[in-house]
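Moderator note: this is an archived Q&A kept for reference. The question asked for a predicted structure of one protein chain; the sequence and the answer are reproduced below.
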Amino acid sequence: MIKYVPELTDVVIEEIPDKVTLAVEISNCPGNCPGCHSPFLKEDIGKELTPQVIDRLIAENFGINCFLMLGEGQDPEALRTLARHVRSAHPNVEVALYSGRKSVEDDIFELFDYVKVGPYIEEAGPLNKPGTNQRLYYHRQDITARFWR
């Protein structure tokens, strides 16, 4: 089961380049990044994210063209099932994942259009800093430099 925090769900325009993105914060984060901006997401909080919830969220947020899961939780198969659902039920909505892991499995790149990898390292900075250790991929192509203005 994947859980999200409904109160933190929001439409954003900065997370994925050129996309109007519905971002959902996923709880049960297994990471341990020093300086994490959302340490409460390590806890088992929120509500279950189901295909029906995703359908409702997308319907309630007309105009979005990307669905972003900020985190993976601790149920890899449920995460994959949800990505497959967005792809099949909402073909005009791209799917994105922010993972704090250093690398992800090949099928993650197949299921998600956008994949961000790399734990947050405070001294390296976030994606908009050229020294960042984090990377954002679009269909396996590194597009991180698009954040460096």
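Archived answer notes: The longest strand covers residues 21-25.
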